[in-house]
Amino acid sequence: MHHLVKPLSAAILVAFAATAAPYALAADDLKIALIAGKTGPLEAYAKETETGFMMGLEYLTGGKMEIGGRKLKVIVKDDQSKPDLGRTLLAEAYGDDKVAIAVGTTSSGSAIAMLPVAKEYKKVLIVEPAVADAITGDKWNKYIFRTARSSMQDALAAASTLKGGSVAFLAQDYAFGRDGVKAGKEALAATGSKAKVVHEEYAPATATDFTAPTQRLFDALKDKPQPRVLGIVWAGPNPMNKIADMKPERFGISLAPGGNILPVMKTWKNYAGTEGTIYYYYAFPKNKMNDWLVLEHTKRFKAPPDMFTAGGFAAASAVFNALSKVPSGNGDQLAAAMEGMTFETPKGPMSFRKEDHQALQSMYHFRIKKDQKNEWDLLELVREIPTAELPLPVRNKR
């Protein structure tokens, strides 16, 4: 009998080796999940995030798409901006796909649903581009890092431009809009602004007629101390043009739009001189990474990179730096390495604050240009608002 054992075990070993070989190779791939709302109301944002993420990895790896000799494999999943789907896809990415790290997602509702999954699997999730404050606030856990700016960072940037007078808000009636206004009020207090909030108006996210809410806003502002500012917190097609058509200047009211994507800002040409604040505009940052992004993006897509393109690129930089430090993707080691980590982005350097892992970053105060040289020559820089002037509170009760 003994003579049978050897050939049999050799045969088994050969068979096993044959089945194991492809897996052994696959294990060497460094897998990253990118979850985005590629269908649904935020698909324009999701598309930009994905483009920026892939271009970021290309730039950082010198076109090799590898880290430490291991091939990068990006697995893109569409959560359709649905929280239940976001949660399921992230569990699938960590569990079945065995990704080292995940990035996502477009909608704040879906991002919030994903946070506990990262904790359950003890794996890092980089949130981009969702902005809800709760993500780095009461819903946070130690595996969560955000490269995107928060509602509060947006609000602090806007508040830094308002020294006094009266403010009213028009916002979408869901988490993003309500979060934005709440942050706006807190930001005015935090920056010591003397401006008073006199009215808040919430309209359905799908609203197309703004006559009634705008009239109420005008009535609330028209006899209040100047300057009179109407702040607009809106994602997607922006009501600014419809409000401007109702001639706020009759009442000495100026509009303060939050920055938006280029196709939306293109429709603001008639409002030269209007000021606002924005997370990114391609012509503002002056650094090598942004120069490359603007040049390459314009070459490939016949248009400059947008706000969410820069965000996707920043997330890629965080991923690249993190996995260069901890190639195993071990969640606890990654989280420890990423706390306080500074990394380059098209906006300049960002750092993950130790306390809540929010990326601290500068913002931009803009003015809509009078003389626009081409279809994308939209904004001029009033000034870059440095991190030091954005006193972001820590809210995660760590």
UniProtKB/TrEMBL annotation:
<dbReference type="InterPro" id="IPR051010">
    <property type="entry name" value="BCAA_transport"/>
</dbReference>
<dbReference type="InterPro" id="IPR028081">
    <property type="entry name" value="Leu-bd"/>
</dbReference>
<feature type="domain" description="Leucine-binding protein">
    <location>
        <begin position="30"/>
        <end position="372"/>
    </location>
</feature>
<protein>
    <submittedName>
        <fullName>Substrate-binding domain-containing protein</fullName>
    </submittedName>
</protein>
<dbReference type="InterPro" id="IPR028082">
    <property type="entry name" value="Peripla_BP_I"/>
</dbReference>
<dbReference type="Pfam" id="PF13458">
    <property type="entry name" value="Peripla_BP_6"/>
</dbReference>
<feature type="signal peptide">
    <location>
        <begin position="1"/>
        <end position="26"/>
    </location>
</feature>
<keyword id="KW-0732">Signal</keyword>
<comment type="similarity">
    <text>Belongs to the leucine-binding protein family.</text>
</comment>
